[in-house]
Amino acid sequence: MMRLIRIVTLALILLASTAWPGAVASEQSEATATGGEAVASENTAVGSDQKQTVKTDERLFERLKVVGSAAAKSAGSVAVIEEAELRKQAYSDVQRMLRLVPGVNLQDEEGYGLRPNIGMRGSGAERSSKITLLEDGVLIAPAPYSAPAAYYFPTAGRMESIEVRKGSSSIRQGPYTNGGALNLISSSIPSVLGGNVELAGGSDDTFRGRARIGGSTARFGWLAETFRMQSDGFKRLDTGGPTGFELTDYLVKLRVTSSPQSSRFQALELKLGKTEQIGNETYLGLTEADFDRNPYRRYAGSSEDRLDTDHEQVQLLYMMRFNRHLDFTATLYHNDFFRNWRKLQSVEGRQGVSNCPPAPASCTIGIGDVLEQPGSFARELAILRGEVDSEPDSLRLRNNRRNYYSEGLQTVIGVDVWSGSTRHEVEVGLRYHRDEEDRFQEEDRYGMFDGAMELTALGDPGSQSNRINRASAWALFLQDRISLGRWTVTPGARLELIEFSRLDYGRNDPERSAAQLVRTDTDVREFIPGIGAYYQLNHSSGLLAGVHRGFAPPGPGADDRTDPEESINYELGYRRNDGRFDLQVVGFFNDYDNLLGSDTLSSGGSGSGDQFNGGKARVSGLELGASYRLAPAAATYELPLTLAYTYTRGEFRTDFDTDFEGWGSEVRAGDELPYLPPHALSLGLGWIRNRWSAFGNVSYADQMRTQPGQGAIPDAESTDSHVSLDLTLNRELRPGLGLQAQVRNATDEVYVAARRPAGVRPGLPRTVFVGVNWDF
To answer: Which residues contact residue 36 at a Cβ distance below 8 angstroms, ignoring those fewer than 6 apart?
Structure first.
């Protein structure tokens, strides 16, 4: 990776010090204006020396976006959270940010949104592994094809905007097309020298800070940014000690452009990022009775759980606009990610996955069983609580040590032509991608003595898992956005050619001598067509409809019986945008030929990553998003109102038995999908006047099944329905300088947020922040 950084940095230096090739226009360059619209650059004199700044062509950056500027006439359900909205709410939790986007399914886990679980239209929220996750248009999950579970997630607190496209994302984005795509847009290089600083502190010694500075001259732009957040955590260990986290993020961007007088605008942009996180977090929850007594307790048996991560990214972006009809964009990218999550794996031999009856004679018991059936496993629970001493090796901590990389080159050619009264906006994209997950794991043994854990034996390196999963993929898409009168029709197709391999070295070969090497190879070929249409009823509203094929690859190590996840997805809706009242209502129906489940520790499984067929399934629902300015046009104040409502119903359509813990031991046709809330509602109301502004967001999340089933949901297989109220107050002291106060979960609602993988876990309690922000 360092070699790649040196190469691209040298390229930028050379380009900055030499003249950029390109003919100089004699009169009006197409790089500055064509047909009355900005095409390549916007020249602005600055200072007495008349230095110029350059605004790069926004239409070229459209190639990196999943929504872009054509949202109003998009032939699918889309949403964009702009920078102004992100800053006024000052959230660093992406799940809180996404509450105002209908059709997005969220499952809380640790309260801060560091490891979010995001799904769309019932795709499954587990580790955001069933959506196409992007940063600046580039796949950003640790290993998007071979291990998509996002134990790394881009730092939401430093993002400039967030784009969501559901359903119709299958053409341009992939490989996960059943639900949709989430694209996080990082800070852009400013056109003039400036920046901002944001500092905030609050409950549980939480600190959040962000600083960025940058600027542009005629041919060079730059940005430097850092984000820092830390907290002692809102849970309390029986033994004392930290339960919070520390997160540090750095971002640098450098851009070189052609001369403003060039007839062909070109730009080369280098992006470097690094994110480090230390989290004293655990998967170990509580029994129902202990949760009722103290929901924020953590057992002594979780005192050694710890997550360490390190993520590095390099992106080199090149853009050229040949003329008003043709442009080219290419992105070379590389991501490295390391993580080791030391987590309690077993107590008194109670590990693994099963759905055993109480006190079984012969089957493996998981820690989740201990917490669900405390009366049957009193000694094991007492050890977890630190109430009794154990044998020396009774507690096992697994070092879930994994290295990931993902890299590739993606290109897009854009062609914009007129044929009579018909406009064609054609995009052709090609991506070559490869990624890898390297597992090298072992389990250390501990004992519980006098209420504290003590190390009794180190595990042999690689003795728990010692394997490499790899994937390489070619992806090609073709899309034509056809505008004719009131109609906008967008047909297209995507082709995914994927090769998976698994190299398993066995648990007794830490040197990887290949003496016990087992290799598994799998090829996947998938054609993904789709078409969407938008009909403009009048200047501010229209109808949309679409049908496309959904797909998710099975991953490395899948056997011949494991099929890809495939579906046919339909949507029909209405959209209105007039500046005062915006409305989008969309109904959707996803018909799955095969649903896949993945065995992960976070789902309560063994962590093998194996895939499981779920057979036929159906997901249907309704999305409603609206915003309205209540105040009269001549008023000196504003009252913005926002609403997001989602109804979702998902059910299996076939009977089958399974070893996948997330679905239990057997599933019957008509069983509802787990971790899918039927109803989700968010309502936001603001008040803005002069230098004051106040915002209140009320969010309701319905209870969710934690196991497939029908009829009334048993209490032991359900999260809690809950209402959360967030309040924010802003005061501008002078232009560019302001104060902010915020309360999250102002009513201090206590609720069960999750029951997997082991025991009951709470949502975030009342949390208060006070901060200052300065733009300069």
So the answer is: none
User: CA 577, 579, 581: angle at the middle one, nearest 5?
Assistant: 65
- Tokens found for residue 15: 């380009």
User: How is 306-353 classified by DSSP, letter by letter?
Assistant: EEEEEEEEEEEEEEEEEETTEEEEEEEEEEEEEEEEEEEEEETTB-S-
**322 within some domain:** yes
Evaluate whether residue 397 is within a structural domain.
Answer: yes
Q: What is the pTM of this model?
A: 0.90
- Residue 263 to residue 32: CA distance in whole angstroms: 9
Give the lowest-confidence range in 20-29, 352-361, 559-568. 20-29
- The tokens for 46 are 């600055």
Residue 626: predicted pLDDT: 96
Q: How far apart are the first and last CA of the chain?
A: 34
Q: pLDDT tier at 50 (50, 70, 90 boundaries)?
A: very low
Chain segment 413-450, per-residue pLDDT in tens: 999 999 889 999 999 999 999 999 999 999 999 999 99
Q: Is 288 helix (H, G, I), strand (E, B) or coil?
A: helix
Q: How far apart are CA 452 and CA 226, in angstroms?
A: 38
C-alpha dihedral sign at 558, 560, 564, 565: negative
- Angstrom distance (rounded) from CA 94 to CA 112: 9
Number of domain units in the chain: 1
**How many residues are there in the chain?**
776
User: Tokens 């359509």 correspond to what residue?
Assistant: 653
Identify the bridge partners of residue 248 per DSSP, sorted by sequence position. 228, 276
Cβ(487)–Cβ(532) below 8 Å: no
- Poorest-pLDDT segment among 29-38, 183-192, 272-281: 29-38
What does the DSSP 8-state code read for residue 559? Answer: -
Cα–Cα distance measured from residue 474 to residue 527, given in angstroms and rounded to the nearest whole number: 12
Q: For residue 475, what pLDDT is reported?
A: 97
For the stretch 19-42, what's the b/e string if a residue is b when 16 or more beta carbons lie within 10 angstroms of its beta carbon? ebebeeeeeebbbbebeeeebbbb
Instruction: Return the DSSP state at 376.
Output: T
Spatial separation of the C-alpha atoms in residues 244 and 232, rounded to whole Å: 4
**394 and 348 Cβ atoms separated by less than 8 Å:** yes
Which tens digits make up the pLDDT trace of 685-702? 999 999 999 999 999 999
Which tens digit of pLDDT belongs to each residue from 326-372?
999 999 999 999 999 999 999 987 654 444 444 444 445 689 889 99
Q: Look up the domain containing 327 and give its range.
A: 2-17+52-775
CA–CA gap between residue 168 and residue 550 (Å, rounded): 9
Give whole-number Cα distances, 120 to 128, 130, 131, 534, 592, in Å.
Answer: 9, 8, 7, 22, 14
* Coil vs helix vs strand at 98: helix
* CB-side neighbour CA atoms (13 Å) of 156: 25
Q: What is the CATH number of the domain that holds 102?
A: 2.40.170.20
| Whether the Cβ atoms of residue 400 and residue 358 lie closer than 8 Å to each other | no
Closest CA to 568 of 588, 583, 587: 588
The answer to whether residue 379 sits within a structural domain is yes
Q: What are the pLDDT digits (tens) for 660-680?
A: 666 777 889 999 999 899 999
Residue with the bigger pLDDT between 545 and 355: it is 545
Query: For residue 24, is it within any domain?
Result: no
Give me the percent of the chain exceeding a pLDDT of 70. Answer: 86
List pLDDT tens digits, range 271-291: 999 999 999 999 999 999 999
Tell me what percent of the chain is helix, strand and coil, each rounded to the nearest 5.
Answer: 10, 50, 35
